[in-house]
Design a protein that fits this description.
Structural class of chain B: mainly alpha
Radius of gyration of chain C: 20 Å
Order of helices and strands of chain B: HHHHHHHHH
Number of domains of chain B: 1
Distance between the termini of chain B: 30 Å
Number of helices of chain C: 8
Largest sheet of chain B: none
Strand content of chain C: under 5%
Helix content of chain B: over 70%
Order of helices and strands of chain C: HHHHHHHH
Helix content of chain C: over 70%
Number of strands of chain B: 0
Oligomer: heterotrimer
Chains: A mainly alpha (58), B mainly alpha (222), C mainly alpha (248)
Largest sheet of chain C: none
Shape of chain B: elongated
Number of helices of chain B: 9
Chain lengths: 58, 222, 248
């Protein structure tokens, strides 16, 4: 594939694998946090708010 | 103009009455400088290398410490609200406040700095650069810090937040100030850096009074 | 013109329209980033000087660009909210502050990791890295301001003032840090400063830049939507929306 002969070469990155994968891994983690965090916050808020609305109705 | 002069005179009088506010930043300045030989090394040769940075960082920190007091007392006793309501030009009064703040903190710091320079064995030829850069630099710091002080004056625990908000803004002044002193210590031309700081102070003077006025109104209406 | 501004200033209109926008942008960014990352990691040729560690460029540079653009955007929104008092502008400003902070953090982490094989140290006081660190401090200041101020309105206005003074200072900070950096031993060669990249190298970079931009905008809409639901909770349409969300 492309710039590398085997999959092992791709992972090793000519000895720079640690750095490349560390960088991409932290990138992926941060992106995942950006996606997940607002969802969880919204879910929690909607739950709270709907409970409040129910209480007000009854 | 006369309103500004009146404000200046009022500030001076108040500062004279509250001497402890005037002395505290100076003591802080001295103590921070004392920490460095104790924490790093008493070796005069190494200290003289570090001296420009140490003195500048200490001056920056003690200006930061004193910023909280810029509007605090006026806010607490309600006179800030009156000033904002009655003044024709809030900007002019804010400018007067900033200049007054500089006169009671920056100026004494500048006058005290040669002594601390000597304690850290800063070369004699760097003293002019030290005093000139601190004189202009603390004015720039007071200007930039005024916005932060105005934003946080209404908060009970505003001091730490104020530090977080304005410290990044202080960085260019620190860089040029410390490097002018370091340059002078090595007998290199140093006025260019001081001119940069002067440009920062002048540039800040063009928009800081307005922004500070906006920020003060936010804090008062809170 | 005024009508257009009014439309954008209406939280309800924004809320109704933004779902499709965020969806479209999300799909675009997923496509661009998938292609860009596979291309950049697996197919772009090695750099003759830095070897494979140069592949970090495909996430470092887009993150740094978006981190900087985000602050400019915050300052523009701050100016809009001060001058025209649009509450929508403040909501978006508050929503994008954490995104910008995270992107500056990504730029710092990837820069540090890149620095290790390039300069032999995890942290180098390079001009760009130092400026990025200061930019992150500016973001953290805005976020801290929102956390400390209880009153929503004054927090909004204060954040607007803070971003404006921040944006005026950014060029000065960058210039002074650059100047400071050349004063002390300059780094032997800079990350990202490359003479004539071949097309197989820069096309994935361009894809990644657009991909990360689209991701940022999609996230901006998503977070602003939550902010609208929180702030407009007394409006009847928001109450309906919330009961619809829990019902479904």
């Amino acid at each position: 594939m492309g710039a590398f002969e085997t999959f092992g070469d791709f992972i090793a990155m000519d000895g720079h694998g640690l750095y490349v994968w560390l960088a991409y891994g932290s990138f992926a983690l941060c992106m995942a946090w950006l996606i997940v965090q607002p969802r969880l916050a919204l879910k929690r808020y909607v739950k709270e708010q709907s409970m409040k609305m129910k209480r007000e109705q009854s | 103009m006369s309103a500004i002069m009146l404000m200046l005179r009022r500030e001076m009088l108040l500062a004279y009455r509250r001497k402890i506010d005037l002395i505290n930043p100076l003591l802080f300045f001295m103590m921070v400088v004392t920490l460095f030989p104790l924490g790093v090394t008493p070796d005069l040769e190494k200290l003289s290398m570090l001296a420009p940075g140490i003195i500048w960082v200490a001056a920056l920190l003690s200006t930061l410490l004193s910023l909280d007091m810029m509007f605090r007392n006026d806010y607490d006793d309600g006179s800030l609200e009156q000033i904002l309501l009655s003044a024709k030009s809030v900007e002019g009064l804010v400018l007067a406040k900033i200049i007054a703040h500089w006169m009671v903190t920056g100026l004494p710091l500048t006058l005290m700095s040669p002594m601390l320079g000597m304690m850290l064995s800063l070369p004699q030829r760097a003293m002019i650069a030290l005093m000139a850069s601190l004189a202009v630099g603390t004015l720039a710091l007071s200007m930039l810090g005024a916005v932060g002080a105005a934003l946080t004056v209404g908060l009970r625990k505003g001091g730490l937040l104020l530090a977080l908000l304005v410290m990044p803004l202080f960085i260019p002044v620190l860089i040029f100030g410390a490097s002018s002193v370091a340059g002078a210590a090595q007998a290199i031309e140093f006025w260019a850096q001081i001119a940069y700081i002067g440009a920062i102070a002048l540039g800040a003077a063009s928009f800081v009074p307005w922004l500070t006025g906006v920020a003060l109104r936010i804090s008062v209406n809170n | 013109m005024w009508k257009w501004i009014q439309k954008w200033g209406s939280p309800k209109w924004f809320y109704q329209m933004s779902w499709n926008w965020s969806l479209t942008l999300g799909v675009i960014s997923a496509l661009l980033m998938t292609v860009g990352i596979i291309w950049g990691l697996g197919f772009a040729p090695q750099d003759y000087q830095q070897g494979n560690s140069f592949r970090i460029i495909y996430i470092h540079v887009p993150s740094a660009i978006v981190a900087e653009a985000c602050y400019m955007m915050m300052a523009s929104l701050g100016a809009i909210s001060i001058i025209w008092k649009l509450k929508m502008a403040s909501m978006v400003l508050k929503s994008i502050a954490p995104i910008g902070a995270i992107f500056s953090l990504i730029a710092l982490i990837t820069g540090a990791v890149w620095g290790k094989p390039t300069w032999g140290a995890w942290w180098v006081w390079d001009a760009r890295i130092t400026s990025m660190l200061i930019l992150m401090f500016l973001y953290l200041g805005v976020i801290a301001l929102y956390h400390v101020m209880e009153n929503e309105q004054s927090a909004d206005k204060s954040a607007a003032v803070l971003t404006i003074i921040g944006v005026v200072n950014i060029p000065i900070i960058k210039y002074s840090v650059n100047w400071w950096n050349t004063l002390h031993q300059p780094a032997t060669f800079k990350l990202t400063e490359k003479p004539a990249m071949p097309a197989e190298m820069w096309i994935p970079l361009v894809l990644m830049i657009f991909g990360v931009y689209a991701f940022f905008l999609a996230q901006m809409f998503i977070r602003s939507r939550s902010e609208i639901l929180i702030r407009e909770r007394k409006a009847s349409w928001v109450k309906e929306e919330i009961s619809r969300m829990t019902g479904a």
